[in-house]
Amino acid sequence: MSADPFIPRRILVTGVGANPGLGLARSLTRLGHQVIATDANPLAPGLLLPDVIPRLIPHTDAREYADALAEICRDHDVEAVVAGIENDLPPLLAAKTRLTAAGVRLWLPDPDSIRACIDKAVFHRVLTEHAIRTPRTWHPAQLDRVPDGTELVIKPARGHGAQNVHFCSSREHARVLCGLVPQAIVQERVHGTEFTADCLVDRAGRASAILRRRDLVKAGLAAVSTTFTDLRVHAAVVATLKAVRSVGVSCVQGFISPDDDTVTITELNARIAGGFPLTEAAGADLVEQLVNGLFGAAVDHDRLTYRTGVFLTNYVETLAVGNIADLPFAAGQKEVRT
């Protein structure tokens, strides 16, 4: 039987200033799809990629975000929208009815699922209710409950990209940090082998997960990583996807204890991971299967298998240099301002 013919799609990717959106835009264009790349920052690197259609868009908390998104979709005959950053999920969900009525496809979790993914306190509660091991978590007002000598992580409850993350080992230090970190939450620090699972859950609820060790982490990003298999890690990842009711593409992160191989899940991001190119290099057809599911076709889980022991190293890349006045947005293209 011959394979189905390739259909190039017109896909809008949000948040192309960060690694996940940038990498997704690159992968989609390499596969032959037309990418409309959007970001609120005119110097976002994904807007400078060759072969994409770059468009500025307001920040997600701006009132005109939904109108601007709908206008871009209409002007460029966009067939589907994929979020490249967590902050875009709630406004995309709010605009879903409007966009789908215009023929634009989205593949998003339900509101409670999205909230569990972007709010670390809610994520902790959901995993605890499902008996999935996750770091102990306290609100700043509960610091007196933290056991003596516990290593702690102070971070924003709704943060992303390892921003405003601090480590300490005393309640006194934690109190100071909680006053400095916006919407702070306090978590037990976990040690061990850090991993990410690149995941795709189809519309019937079947999940595939590709496991990557985060061998060297810099500023929250895996600078060196290697694919591996572990039945306990896979089981914990699939249980987490089910507990949060994840659909479509996502990434799950956690640690394997060096003492007893206990698996602790730390987060689930309802978007593609920044390190997903390793997953594809190891043989998993993640992005094209995401496109299949996005457009209502069956996800071929046989094409989401992968080879272990494949490594990837990242480095800071200079994508473009030049004069700001020469940028397309400075040369008369429509710019949306917040």
Keywords:
six-stranded antiparallel beta sheet; 338 residues; 10 helices; D-amino Acid Aminotransferase, Chain A, domain 1; 27% helix; 3 domains; Dna Ligase, domain 1; 24% strand; four-stranded parallel beta sheet; globular
Description:
- This protein is an alpha+beta fold.
- The chain has 3 domains: 10-108 and 319-330, Rossmann fold; 136-188, ATP-grasp fold, A domain (Dna Ligase, domain 1, 2-Layer Sandwich); 191-313, ATP-grasp fold, B domain (D-amino Acid Aminotransferase, Chain A, domain 1).
- It is 27% helix and 24% strand.
- The strands form 3 sheets. The chain has a 6-stranded antiparallel beta sheet.
How does the SSE layout of this entry go?
Elements: E1 10-13, H1 19-30, E2 34-39, E3 53-56, H2 65-75, E4 80-82, H3 89-94, H4 96-101, H5 111-118, H6 120-129, E5 137-138, E6 152-156, E7 166-168, H7 171-180, E8 184-188, E9 193-201, E10 207-218, E11 221-228, H8 231-244, E12 248-256, E13 263-269, H9 276-281, H10 286-294, E14 311-313
Parallel strand pairs: 1-2, 1-4, 2-3
Antiparallel strand pairs: 5-8, 6-7, 6-8, 9-10, 9-12, 10-11, 11-14, 12-13
Helix pairs in contact: 5-6
